[in-house]
Design brief:
With about 170 residues, this protein is mostly helical. About 95% of the residues lie in helices and about 0% in strands. The protein contains three helices and no strands. It starts with a helix and ends with a helix.
């Protein structure tokens, strides 16, 4: 019980010494620990503030890079579309030229064929004429040969021819 009463009602000397030690401890802490602790807290606060600013700058940079990336992608899409359009135009032009060239070649071949057919037709007509003339001469020869077997007929024909010549000559 003695101990219990000492703890609840301390003596004046204990209170004074406890207060002096506490104040000395506060003074020592203020001199040696308080300033470094406060400097460390300020440094930590500045570090956190700098990190937050860096994070904000990084976020702004990311936004700018994203916008740049989107602009680049849009430009690439436009270029791709332009290249595809040019390729389609070139393909269409090549097809049109090929068709035109094929038509020209077909026209040339058709013209050559028509010329060949016309030449063949002319040659055939000339050949037929020659054959008809040859046949006509053969037929006339046979007819004259038959008709002129008789000497009286021969004389009659000669006189007629001579008379015709005299008429034309005058």
């Amino acid at each position: 019980m003695i101990l219990a009463s000492n703890l609840t009602s301390p003596e004046l000397g204990t209170i004074v010494w406890t207060t002096i030690i506490f104040l000395l401890l506060l003074l020592l802490l203020r001199i040696f620990a308080w300033k470094p602790i406060m400097d460390a807290i300020k440094a930590r606060e500045e570090s956190i503030k700098g990190s937050l600013e860096s994070a904000e700058e990084a976020r702004e940079e990311m936004k700018r890079l994203k916008a740049d990336n989107e602009a680049i992608m849009e430009e690439a899409r436009k270029e791709r579309d332009e290249l595809l359009r040019e390729a389609r135009d070139a393909r269409d032009k090549m097809i049109a030229e090929a068709k035109k060239q094929a038509k020209n070649e077909a026209d040339k071949l058709l013209q050559k064929a028509l010329t060949g057919i016309e030449r063949g037709k002319t040659m055939a007509i000339n050949d037929i004429r020659n054959q008809i003339a040859s046949l006509s001469v053969e037929i006339a020869e046979k007819i004259l040969d038959e008709k002129l077997k008789d000497s009286r007929e021969q004389n009659k024909l000669i006189e007629k021819l001579l008379d015709d010549m005299d008429l034309k000559g005058n």
